[in-house]
Design brief:
The complex is a heterodimer of chains A (about 700) and B (about 150).
Chain A: H1 13-17, E1 32-38, E2 44-51, E3 61-63, E4 88-89, E5 95-101, H2 104-112, E6 114-120, H3 127-131, E7 143-152, E8 161-169, E9 181-187, E10 190-195, H4 200-211, E11 216-219, H5 233-247, E12 251-254, H6 257-263, E13 270-278, E14 284-296, H7 302-312, E15 321-330, H8 344-362, H9 366-372, H10 390-404, H11 406-411, E16 417-428, H12 434-438, E17 441-446, E18 452-455, H13 465-477, E19 484-486, H14 505-524, H15 530-542, E20 548-552, E21 561-562, E22 567-568, E23 573-585, E24 592-602, H16 609-628, E25 634-635, E26 638-639, E27 655-663, H17 675-678, H18 680-692, H19 703-710
Parallel strand pairs in A: 1-12, 10-11, 14-15, 18-19, 24-27
Antiparallel strand pairs in A: 1-5, 2-4, 2-6, 3-5, 7-15, 8-13, 9-10, 9-12, 13-14, 16-23, 17-18, 17-20, 21-22, 23-24, 25-26
Helix pairs in contact in A: 4-5, 7-8, 8-9, 8-18, 13-14, 16-18
Chain B: E1 2-7, E2 10-15, H1 22-28, E3 47-50, E4 53-56, E5 69-71, H2 81-89, H3 99-111, H4 118-124, H5 136-143
Helix pairs in contact in B: 2-5
Classes of the chains: A alpha+beta (about 700), B alpha+beta (about 150).
Chain lengths: ~700, ~150
């Protein structure tokens, strides 16, 4: 038995590989296509909208803000973002009108015959301009959220060295292969939403505000998310809903790639200043970190991304005095949102680059400096509580250092080859007591044939939910995995298990499902064979007792969190990583090749090793893309590179040897989804520093930056 | 204009504008294995065969398939069975949106006698994007396709 820990083949692999799986745009459809008419300016007021009298608009469904009967606000954390702009626009691409028609060509023609006039104002395009209050975009100071926290006291030790460095990270595009897509089905006045999304219940909540009534929301097979389908689908679902309601017909909106890259949410760019004091052996005494992230035009998820920045800003390193000042600011650029890692990849780049900078300043090995600062039993983290993962972290670090041969590679530098390391953690689940506020619940149902159906809102978007959750339930019931399936996530039919984000599906939802399964097992009584199980099921069903079993999240008693003091357990648990990159620089064209990448992870029990490896390999590829390839060019608030030919993703020949190891398998399952995105950028940048002796403090590191560093 | 071609052996007639993309025509004809990923020939998700050559349907206009023999993954189920099985077995499928394109690329590569080495396969996959896997398991699946 024990299907947990086995590389079960994904249940959806065959239908995906033969092309029969229906993603949103593949669903049978007989209705209208919808498009969004967007702001052409970054900041200003809408003066007028003119419909060319020479064009026949009859038959074109047109929706503007005045058609909204409910609340014109997409409430994520606050209500500042309208579904459709009424009088003011705050970024290029902000939706103003929606159009629908059966013919895509007529739609394009109609859009070309609408003129929007603006009173343009000077936009705020950088974090610096925002903080200088060039324009007042939000509140008194353009700050969406500020977090300040201080731990320990300023060291009195004498003769300490100090270092003051600034690191920057850019926007990053999720680049899921399936663009954002949504269908609104019309059925006698009622609307049902079906589409590509990570969080059906988020979409339901957003539409409830917009429509003033509950709308059924169903997830369609989703071609990748990476956070890009966490918060954004609420908007496109709202557009499809509004057009569908007004037209009285089904409406489908599918973005093309340019629209998707140019206007949907991205990873927040950041500016990170690390000021440290340390002794001549590299032991940290004090660390002051200033973090600024660019939220774009609306609040969206920025305050939570910022909290994750703060909780990861110092890594797990032991430090007597730690001060963090963090702000998320408003600018007139398209809003930024969730992306795998959610704030952690930015600051972990900062702290892991800084550890190498300390090593370089002292002429020490980067591994030796990290070892000196490993936490111990009495080490306290950024939020004031002990770092309980200290022993696991040390074991991971020592294994990775030894098995990868890091020291030997580092001690014998070659003119074109270098090695770099990143040691990091990732909090799994919601920050602080966020999970208790989500109050997730799960449900499983016993079917008449003895099979079990999982009913949760957690979605499959490529990461393996449809396979991993059945493995967990089958394991708890001692059943073959084929006996357990997942119902399609539909807000009218499944329990609200919370969003599919934050590395929480296996850890939180999986744990709740195991609890629900053990309730079912208790109800069935003893059985020790498949036949015995069937008999127990028949007996139980005849008794007329409930066929559904549930469980709800209860916060472990030892989790404490005070949001005002930023004190307590930042997360219920952490995944750990120690990643080692070897790079080669081409002396002719300055291209960087990652020739070897070793990813050592500790995420407790691994449910499906093959899928987990795939998660790490994919995350590492995204992290290498973040480090070396992916660059969005913004010009006066507009994305100038909204194509895969400009925004370059890693291709197969770019990724050489990625090897994945899992340690610490005996513990409970922790989060895995985001962890592998966190470490690669720093490991690659540090490896380049090893070859060239220069600091690479800004991402992405392109051949142009390498050439400059070689001069 | 009128365009006539065969898709997976069956004759199809399209009444369409000359600038219509083959991608859209083929999808409207029900071949949903052909996916719209990027619209500019960068990702390979819309791969199909035209007169035996593997091409990106997003870059072809309607007149380019006049009288042509178009074959999509729907028409190559038997021929690609071993490849698809290997993709599933080796964890090469994640979100799956790029997968039909990779399967056709692998089929084209192997049926032309492509070498079973990782480096050669990686080079052959240069026209297909995957954002989920990091490519390692796709390459491994192609190396291990049962012949």
């Amino acid at each position: 038995m024990g299907v947990v820990g086995e590389s079960v083949v994904r249940v959806d692999a065959a239908a995906k590989a033969d092309g029969t799986l229906r993603y949103t745009d593949d669903l049978a459809f007989d209705g209208l296509y919808g498009v969004v008419v967007r702001s052409e300016i970054a900041y200003g007021k809408i003066r007028s909208i003119t419909y060319d009298p020479a064009f026949d608009f009859s038959g074109i469904v047109i929706v503007d803000h005045s058609d909204i009967e409910g609340r014109n606000a997409n409430v994520v954390l606050t209500d500042d973002q309208p579904f459709l702009a009424a009088t003011r626009v705050r970024h290029i691409g902000e939706p103003i009108l929606l159009l629908a028609h059966r013919s895509k060509q007529r739609l394009r023609d109609a859009a070309a015959h609408i003129t929007i006039d603006y009173d343009a104002q000077e936009p705020v395009l950088s974090m610096e301009e925002s903080l200088a209050c060039k324009q007042r975009l939000y509140g008194e100071d353009n700050v969406f959220k500020a977090i300040h926290t201080v731990k320990g006291s300023v060291p009195e030790a004498e003769g300490l060295h100090s270092l003051d460095k600034t690191y920057t990270t850019p926007h990053q595009e999720q680049a899921y292969l399936e663009p954002q897509s949504m269908v609104a089905r019309y059925n006698g006045g009622r609307v049902k939403i079906i589409g590509s999304m990570q969080c059906p219940f988020f979409v339901e909540a957003a539409l409830e505000g917009l429509a003033g009534e509950k709308i059924e929301v169903e997830q369609a097979p989703t071609g990748g998310g990476f956070g890009g389908k966490e918060d954004y689908p609420s908007l496109i679902a709202g557009y499809a809903y509004l057009l569908c309601k007004k037209a009285g017909q089904d409406v489908k909106i599918v973005y093309d790639r340019e629209e998707d890259i140019a206007y949907t949410t991205k990873r927040h760019p950041s500016k990170l200043r690390y000021k440290s004091r340390f002794d001549s052996m590299g032991k940290l005494y004090a660390l002051e970190v200033e973090i600024i992230i660019d939220g774009g035009a609306y609040v969206t998820l920025s305050p939570v991304v910022l909290a994750r920045c703060v909780l990861h800003a110092a890594g797990f390193y032991d430090c007597g005095y730690l001060r963090i000042d963090a702000r998320a600011v408003a600018t007139n650029t398209p809003p930024n949102g969730a992306f795998r890692g959610f704030g952690a990849p930015q600051v972990l780049f900062g702290i892991e680059r800084h550890m190498d900078d300390i090593a370089r300043a002292l002429g020490l090995s980067p591994a030796a400096v990290r070892e000196r600062n490993l936490p111990g039993a009495d080490s306290v983290g950024v939020s004031g509580v002990p770092i309980t993962e200290h022993a696991r972290l040390r074991a991971l670090f020592e294994t990775a250092r030894r098995e990868s041969g890091f020291d030997a590679l580092y001690d014998v530098p070659s003119p074109h080859r270098g090695v770099g390391m990143a040691l990091f953690m990732h909090g799994a689940g919601y920050t602080g007591v966020g999970e208790s506020m989500l109050a997730s619940s799960v449900s499983i149902a016993l079917e008449s044939d003895g099979s079990v159906e999982i009913r949760v809102g957690s979605v499959e978007m490529g990461q393996g939910t449809l396979t991993a959750l059945p493995q967990i339930v089958a394991d708890a019931l001692a059943l073959p995995v084929e006996m357990v399936t997942c119902r399609t996530p539909n807000t009218a039919e499944v329990a609200d298990s919370g969003p599919t984000v934050a590395s929480r599906t296996v850890m939180i939802v999986g744990r709740l499902l195991a609890q629900a399964a053990s309730k079912l097992k208790t109800a069935l009584g003893d059985y020790d064979s498949p036949d015995g199980y069937r008999e127990a099921v028949t007996r139980y069903r005849q008794s007329g007792a409930p066929q559904q079993f549930g469980a709800s999240y209860e916060q472990p008693a030892d989790i404490l969190w005070d949001e005002d003091l930023f004190y307590g357990n930042g997360y219920e648990a952490y995944g750990l990583g120690c990643y080692i990159a070897e790079v080669e620089v081409d002396p002719v064209d300055y291209r960087v090749r990652v020739v070897r990448f070793d990813a050592y992870n500790d995420v407790g029990q691994v449910v499906n090793p093959m899928m987990a490896e795939g998660q790490v390999e994919g995350g590492v590829a995204q992290g290498i893309g973040y480090a070396l390839f992916e660059r969005l060019v913004y010009e006066t608030g507009r994305v100038r590179s909204p194509r895969f030919s400009d925004y370059t993703l890693p291709m197969a020949p770019d990724l050489l040897k990625i090897s994945v190891r899992f340690l610490g398998l005996e513990g409970p399952s922790l989060g895995l989804g985001e962890l592998p995105m966190d470490g690669p950028a720093a490991a690659v940048a540090n490896a380049l520093g090893h070859v060239l002796g220069n600091a690479f403090d800004a991402l992405p590191i392109t051949p142009e930056t390498v050439e400059e560093a070689c001069r | 204009m009128q365009i006539t071609c065969t898709i997976n052996g069956k004759v199809h007639r399209f009444d369409c504008a000359p600038e219509s993309r083959v991608l859209d025509l083929v999808r409207e004809a029900g071949m949903t294995s052909v996916k719209a990923g990027c619209g500019e020939g960068e990702c390979g998700a819309c791969s199909l065969f035209v007169n035996g050559r593997l091409v990106n349907a997003c870059l072809l206009l309607a007149p380019q398939i006049q009288d042509a023999e178009v074959v999509t993954l729907e028409g190559l189920q038997e021929e690609t069975a071993a490849i698809r099985e290997s993709f599933a077995e080796h964890g090469a499928v994640q979100c799956g949106f790029c997968t039909p394109g990779f399967v056709l690329r692998a089929y084209d590569y192997l049926s032309h006698g492509g070498e079973r080495s990782e480096e050669a396969i990686k080079a052959a996959l240069d026209g297909n994007l995957c954002r989920c896997t990091g490519y390692r398991k796709i390459v491994e699946a192609i190396v291990k396709v049962k012949s």
